[in-house]
Amino acid sequence: MPRTRYQSTLHGNRLSRLPAAALRAVIAGGYTRADLRSDVLAGIVVGVVALPLAMALAIAVGVAPQHGLYTAIVAGGLVALLGGSRMQVSGPTAAFIVILAPIYTRFGLAGLLMSGLLGGVLLVAMGLGRLGQFIEFIPHPVTTGFTAGIATVIATLQLKDFFGLHVTKMPERYFDKVAALWHARGTVSLVDLGIGCVTLAILLAVPRLTRRVPGALIALPIAALLAFAIERLVPGVTVSTLARRFHTTVGGRVYDGVPPLPPLPGLPWNAGGPEGQPFTLTFATLRELMPGAFAVAMLGGIESLLSAVVADGLSGTRHDPDAELLALGIGNIVTPFFGGIPATGAIARTATNIRSGARSPVAAVVHSATVLAAVAALASLIGTLPMAAMAALLLLVAWNISEVKHFGHILRVAPRSDAVVLLTCFGLTVAFDMVVAVSVGVVLAALLFMRRMAELTRVSLAGDGQGDPSAPAAHPDLPKGVAIYEIAGPLFFGAAQRATSGLGAISDRARVLIIRLDQVPVMDSTGLVALESALAQLRKLGCQAILCGLQRQPAELLARAMIVNAPGRLSISADLAGAVEVARDIVALPPTVTASREST
To answer: What CATH architecture does domain 457-599 belong to?
Structure first.
């Protein structure tokens, strides 16, 4: 898609004004009537796509479908206006299901909304603290592993409605969920299963025939018509639908399915606790909600910035990660006051937005307005959608985010350490949760990275220490009694001991040891201590050391440690040639003279 003039203004330049960085750039670059027309058309398309997804995702969490719609309406528009990505579309996403479902089970709707609010506060702090760039340091096997784990959990949760199973209460832990589903296998509804299969088949077939019409726009109405026909033709058969499953009381009136009302303001802590029990907001409760809020903030930030990166690749723009985090935080703070669950950037909806011709954040605002209009005008029709059809939609979503081929590709071609990180994150996400998986995955990946960095640091010896003239540190004019010990690579805590451990063993074969450091770009305190220890050991054994080729950072570190040029004890040379000349002068002196200099 060709870039417009305001799209190209960001290319190569980082946005810096917060909030509304993307919108400011659009206005500064010029926004025309043609741009508005493209945004309106794209926003309507994305709104149609988001409508069933928002409901299905809310249902998967355990709440009524309108809460997902409220998220798309409030957060979708607010994050777009305040964010740093031009094409990003925010709303409820599948990745949140594994985090939010246990929170809802334990704390009810009020606890769920409060988790989103607290997560929003953390995201605002991350944005103001300019932490957007640090998300890039989460390794790819970690994100792939927990995403595949999330997809597995989502798919498992949908089996209940897809097969029409009757499960009294779904447990919190994954393997307990699997056991509950297996015990309920005798309650399979062939009608629900048939509707789910038909819906899934249509969802898979439509993209092969045309990409102009969203598959859900065809599959879900057909599923509703099929359910209606079955109930009319087969006496005694009742299909589970949104209207039969969910009932909401607003102002003393009970609404079946989705209320035909806009998001109404209210205090999130008054929304009710688990199973209709009162929710008491105390410091102890907030403390118990913090792990979930942290998970919301971390996953929301990661997924939103990944989605923004995808948007940049598709549209040729560049986003401001800090502005995006700030906007996402504000959106998640405001949305709970209108009954919305946590939101983040949605990759599939963002891609649909761009492919539909979006040119600015206005398209995402139109998407929110489209969802709002559908709620007001089509609430009664939305209530006829079968639960099995919604489950089929989420099964397809789970398959799409799992990236099975990519998962297998990493296992086949990536280093073994990356495969270990991938499988660890996948297993921990399924068995526990995303927070545990990311925490362990990042630490494990960091440890493996440090091991690889340590392996990059190598040493070589030339001269009287070993008679190998082909060694990298060999020198054709090296005097007798002089050896060159070369260290190449970062001298940090993972490699310092191994790099310096061989220095002491050389002293009995050489009077002078040139330690070549021109290929050591950095040195940390552990490397400094190891080098100091090696130099002290060389002095004790009567071998004088010459450091040569120090780069800037190691030179500054040694100077602060008072490791300086000291004749008779330690010499520092700018290059190898100078170090060899100094060594030639030292070995030319009688050993007694050298020893007397060392004693002084």
So the answer is: 2-Layer Sandwich (3.30)
